[in-house]
């Protein structure tokens, strides 16, 4: 009886895997993740679920029907608390284009700072943020709020800073679409586009190797990074791609550490960290004892964004292995991806390549990329490593062990005169 009472008073803890997700989650986490994605696209969860066009036999139909019930109950529960609790998405929605009337209650003094707005990392914003900014500017224009300047009067302005090639959070609802099509979402009498193409981190071959992959995603025309770090502009060290080899990783990481260089060891999947810590345990301990912990960092590709190191070790390919009917559906409802019926899937194909670009360009001089070049039982829809061209000087593709066994005379393929290769 006690067990039955406990069941009636506790939340369910079974796991559920929505089609297209990598793994199963506890049901409440799955609910929250799915609802947050919908809200990040600027949609109302309940309305979006009602508008879904999933087949009747889709395995996730019952999940989304249950989500609609849960989300309504959660909203009611949060609003009934004292004081009421609001999620970030709910606050954006309250003052976005769907809640524009609420902005009329905001004092002009609160809106005034928004008349001159700068948004960094613009490639990572979601539709809910865009809707809030658009609604705010519309209200500023309606009130004809003056822009406070030391000179003549001016209009409200927005400066967006970002890099569409570094947009890697589409899985949570962000999109570079708002940045690339800026004039569509923020029409103005005049706009100024400034390309900041000087790269003050990496040498040219690192830049070229990364761009050779990411250029397939489209974006702005005539966009090419130019090495501008005087410490490394003359370097000609190719990015090396090879089979996953923890012994090689340990040897090279030790070499670069003992040379006094900073090191980033990055992994695509979080569970890889345990293996890295095992093989680099001695070096990690040494760095701690010598007070050089900042010189040896272990992070995921996503967490490394904005960082740099002399030598970067990348573990794992950037790939897209699933399709998501439900996310394609809400993408369509949010008018993302144009007329593409699989807009979300297409965005994830591109994001795999952008993630590789971000990871490679953490390197100042040396970059080693360890990948499994074999296809799994089910061929991935996209893999960044497929787009590595071994004929480019900026790449040093070490033949896989299997390839060397099949054709040992090709083991030195890709090593050309004039290129500084390393093993």
Automatic annotation (TrEMBL):
Keywords: ATP-binding, Helicase, Hydrolase, Isomerase, Nucleotide-binding. GO terms for molecular function: 3'-5' DNA helicase activity; ATP binding; ATP hydrolysis activity; DNA binding. Residues 111-187 form the UvrD-like helicase ATP-binding domain. Its EC number is 5.6.2.4. Coiled coil: none annotated. It catalyses: Couples ATP hydrolysis with the unwinding of duplex DNA by translocating in the 3'-5' direction; ATP + H2O = ADP + phosphate + H(+). GO terms for biological process: recombinational repair. Residues 293-363 form the UvrD-like helicase C-terminal domain. PANTHER family: DNA HELICASE IV (PTHR11070:SF63), UVRD / RECB / PCRA DNA HELICASE FAMILY MEMBER (PTHR11070). This is DNA 3'-5' helicase. It comes from Pseudomonas amygdali pv. lachrymans. The lineage of its organism: Bacteria, Pseudomonadati, Pseudomonadota, Gammaproteobacteria, Pseudomonadales.
């Amino acid at each position: 009886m006690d067990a039955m009472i406990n069941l009636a008073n506790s939340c369910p803890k079974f796991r559920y895997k929505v089609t297209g997700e990598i793994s199963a989650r506890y049901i409440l986490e799955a609910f929250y993740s799915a609802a947050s994605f919908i809200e990040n696209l600027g949609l109302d969860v309940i309305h979006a679920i009602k508008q879904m066009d999933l087949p009747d036999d889709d395995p996730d139909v019952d999940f989304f029907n249950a989500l609609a019930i849960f989300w309504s109950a959660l909203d009611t529960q949060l609003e009934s608390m004292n004081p009421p609790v609001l999620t970030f998405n709910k606050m954006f929605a309250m003052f976005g284009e769907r809640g524009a009337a609420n902005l009329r209650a905001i004092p002009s003094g609160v809106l005034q700072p928004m008349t001159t707005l700068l948004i960094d990392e613009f490639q990572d914003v979601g539709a809910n943020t865009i809707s809030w900014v658009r609604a705010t500017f519309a209200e500023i224009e309606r009130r004809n709020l003056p822009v406070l300047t030391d000179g003549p009067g001016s209009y409200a302005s927005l400066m967006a800073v970002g890099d569409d090639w570094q947009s890697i959070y589409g899985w949570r609802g962000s999109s570079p679409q708002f940045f690339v099509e800026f004039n569509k979402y923020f029409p103005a009498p005049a706009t100024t586009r400034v390309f900041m193409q000087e790269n003050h981190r990496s040498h040219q071959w690192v830049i070229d190797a990364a761009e050779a992959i990411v250029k397939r995603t489209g974006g702005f025309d005539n966009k090419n990074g130019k090495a501008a770090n005087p410490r490394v502009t003359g370097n000609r060290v190719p990015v090396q791609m090879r089979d996953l080899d923890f012994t090689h990783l340990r040897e090279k990481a030790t070499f670069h550490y003992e040379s006094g260089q900073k090191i980033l060891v990055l992994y695509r999947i979080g569970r890889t960290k345990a293996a890295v810590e095992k093989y680099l345990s001695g070096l990690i301990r040494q760095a701690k004892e010598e007070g050089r912990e900042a010189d040896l960092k272990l992070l995921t590709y996503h967490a490394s964004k904005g960082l740099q190191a002399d030598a970067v070790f990348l573990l794992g390919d950037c790939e897209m292995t699933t399709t998501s009917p439900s996310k394609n559906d809400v993408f369509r409802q949010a008018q993302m991806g144009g007329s593409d019926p699989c807009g979300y899937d297409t965005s994830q194909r591109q994001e795999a390549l952008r993630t590789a670009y971000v990871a490679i360009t953490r390197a100042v001089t040396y970059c080693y990329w360890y990948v499994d070049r074999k296809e799994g039982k089910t061929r991935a829809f996209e893999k960044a490593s497929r787009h590595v061209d071994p004929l480019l000087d900026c790449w040093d593709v070490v033949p896989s062990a299997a390839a060397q066994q099949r054709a040992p005379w090709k083991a030195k393929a890709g090593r050309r005169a004039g290129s500084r290769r390393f093993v």
